[in-house]
């Protein structure tokens, strides 16, 4: 039995869609469908109930999934069985969008130099989605905004950085006072970092604390996309100062809010114990020392 076929089955069962599983695996839906059909012939049973664009696992499939996941996990760890240091094999790494440019390049360089036998698989996503993926062990570790609630005993969060909140605008402010920032926010369209997202809650708290009710152009859970909109002169915003922001400030201006109350805590979320702990520890080392507020 081809383990790639099992992976496709697990993905479809988890995502509820052949098309979504195909997108994640960089395949066509038809190819994924053929893999599922081959498994159904081998098993002698129907594994998916297909309903339009959705695919629901049958009871037979649900019975198989725990062992299928374990087989895929065991296969990913085969290389590490020959490595006393545990620095080989596949590491599934979830990353929020701002970390793709801000933190990921250094991590990839370091792992390439220090542990070339680690095969890094990058999964982009929101902090909330990545948290759920770590919980269900769909990914091994995630770089995300610190969850705004107590973690279960099975999970651990390792802080990496405090990213200060910033006022981002097309034009420079005359000073960095709270009154000047408030005046800018209230006198132009405001592009809102989604208040339901973990990072956006911090920006929303700033608005609430200063009694600001701006003219909101839109809500968006994507700081990098919001930054692009500010560059286009569409409004102002409050965003965390992630490492990639300051690479090119030729067409927007940053005013740092130095109160740590509004800083966005970013770090690594993983399970407390596991066979991939040595790889996750190396990942932590690559991300340190943490940037500090000045």
From TrEMBL:
Keywords: DNA-binding, Transcription, Transcription regulation. Belongs to the LysR transcriptional regulatory family. The keyword Transport does not apply. GO terms for molecular function: DNA-binding transcription factor activity; transcription cis-regulatory region binding. It holds the Pfam family LysR_substrate. Residues 1-58 form the HTH lysR-type domain. This is DNA-binding transcriptional regulator, LysR family. The keyword DNA-binding applies. It comes from the Bacteria.
